[in-house]
Design goal:
Length: 529
């Protein structure tokens, strides 16, 4: 088909050949930030209706479409983009933006036609190709989606999106191994793209890789791989909305630019003072500034209007935990888990708090829940093991520590705890346990490895070695000013000098860890939208 005839056919398909009156825009129904720009454009369009060239009219009509698009008035935006296309049928921008709007409205046929026309007019604008690929996938045209994706993966900024597209095609075509491979490539390229975890989990489950599927589903989210789209960036910035300002603020906070993030949040609150996401995000900033009372008041005001808003509940639980208000922290963590039973962050934080306050059995149960949700998390298995040991359940603790070892055999803390548990929880394995402790010490000689190795040497009857390693452990403690924390070290040294084993074993070792049980959240939930 010749290019001129293709334009003609698209114009006919999109209904652009005849003049249609533009719809009336009700200013009162627009977001406040959009009203003045729309009024100004309405006046310009009225003043220049007869004087301007078609191209100049197209600019005004397109600009109106962009403002309405930014204000999320998609049906109105589509009509103004159509009018711009009528005035300037060879300007790729208006076909592209019309296609974006129609796709968002679920009008896939007209979106596809407009985007194809835009790409014919300007083939070097790759966001157009990416959107055509998305629609091809939705329409079930997997061959075209694959062709487009194979082009995109060769362009660095679009590679992750291209692999996501290929993964979706493979999933739809019942090729789970291939789908998993592409979804993994997305995450390697853009680790933050957590919307990929859900389809990844489905494909892993199809392959029978249940533990991996559970780990993936626990990390699912809504962040897409994305790609640079300068034209849509202009549209988004025309009219600030609370959701857009929250998104921009989160990105700034993630990169450490907290003052700029605060400015975005406060700007958003001028548009929607009760917005839960903006208020919660601002509370996180206030906490960083030491304004604890202000943050608590803000978070409680969010919950007064939305009692089940998880990010606000979660942060109040953390504040209570840090303030040793454990009853309130317990109540709020449990509230989160009642709303979201699979919230791994809440399970992990609750478990760590319970361990710190000496409720070891309950802590172990919560760590088990966390480990089931995030089976790849070494710290979860390690702390579950310590909690079981502290509660007096030797075999449960040993099993969890072995799982942690499988995940990371070079983790010294895991290996030392395992070496102690193996002595009493696994018969006739003292030699292997001592060898583990010796390997850790040789790799990283320090207080923890020295005192554990001293204990093993004493059990072997090598008293002078025990004395030497225990002396080193005491020296390390004194060097770091921690003598008051470990008063038993001198007693243990005295026992070794008398060729006696001290009253110290796996349970005491685990309980010494308990007061310092660390926060376990892997990716801190700054807040949800």
């Amino acid at each position: 088909m010749k290019f001129s005839s293709r334009i003609a056919s698209v114009i006919l398909f999109l209904g652009l050949s005849g003049y249609a009156a533009l719809p009336t825009v009700d200013i009162s129904k627009l977001p406040v930030a959009a009203r003045e720009p729309v009024k100004a454009l309405q006046k310009l369009l009225a003043d220049k209706a007869k004087a301007d060239t078609p191209e100049q009219k197209a600019e005004l009509l397109g600009r109106m479409g962009m403002v309405l698009h930014s204000a999320e008035q998609l049906a109105l935006a589509a009509e103004y983009y159509r009018a711009a296309m009528q005035q300037a049928p060879k300007d790729a921008r208006w076909y592209y933006l019309y296609g974006v709007v129609q796709a968002a409205r679920g009008q896939l046929d007209s979106a596809y036609a407009a985007l194809r026309m835009s790409f014919d007019l300007k083939s070097d604008y790759l966001p157009t190709l990416a959107r055509i690929g998305e629609i091809a996938l939705q329409k079930g045209d997997y061959d075209e989606a694959t062709r487009i994706a194979n082009v995109l993966i060769k362009e660095a900024p679009f590679a992750a999106f291209g692999h996501e597209l290929l993964g979706q095609v493979a999933a739809a075509s019942n090729r789970p191994e291939e789908a998993v491979s592409h979804f993994r490539k997305v995450l390697k390229n853009k680790p933050f793209a957590n919307r990929v975890y859900y389809p990844l989990a489905i494909q892993l489950r199809k392959l029978g890789r249940i533990d991996e599927a559970k780990a993936a589903i626990a990390r699912r989210g809504e962040i897409a791989p994305g790609y640079p789209d300068p034209l849509m960036r202009v549209v988004r910035n025309l009219v600030p909305t609370p959701e857009r300002l929250l998104e921009e603020g989160l990105a700034l906070a993630k990169s450490g630019r907290f003052q700029q993030a605060e400015d975005k949040y406060r700007q958003g609150l001028t548009l929607a003072s009760d917005h839960p996401g903006l208020n919660t995000a601002l509370a996180y900033i206030e906490l960083r500034q030491g304004k604890v009372d202000e943050a608590k008041t803000r978070l409680k005001s969010v919950l007064a209007k939305q009692p089940d808003y998880v990010p606000a509940i979660f942060k109040l639980a953390e504040i209570a935990d840090a303030s040793n208000e454990h009853d309130e922290a317990l109540r709020r963590y449990q509230h989160v888990l009642k709303i979201q039973p699979d919230n791994a962050d809440a399970a992990g934080e609750l478990a760590a708090m319970l361990m710190r306050i000496g409720q070891f059995s309950q802590a172990a149960e919560q760590f088990e829940h966390f480990a089931a949700l995030k089976p790849e998390n070494v710290k979860g298995h390690f702390l579950a093991g310590l909690a079981w040991l502290a509660a007096g359940h030797c075999q449960h603790g040993l099993a969890r520590l072995k799982q942690a070892k499988q995940l990371n055999p070079s983790d010294g803390a895991v290996m030392l705890a395992l070496s102690i548990a193996m002595v009493d929880c696994q018969s006739d394995d003292s030699a292997s346990a001592a060898a583990i402790a010796k390997a850790v010490y040789e790799a990283a000689p320090g207080f923890e490895s020295a005192r554990v190795l001293a204990w093993h040497k004493a059990r072997e009857g090598k008293w002078q070695d025990a004395i030497d390693y225990q002396t080193q452990a005491i020296f390390e403690v004194l060097k770091h000013g921690l003598r008051a924390k470990y008063p038993e070290l001198a007693e243990q040294l005295s026992a070794y000098r008398q060729k006696k084993l001290p009253q110290w074993n796996w349970r005491q070792y685990a309980r010494q860890w308990a007061p310092d049980a660390p926060q376990i959240v892997v990716e801190h939930p700054e807040q949800a939208k």
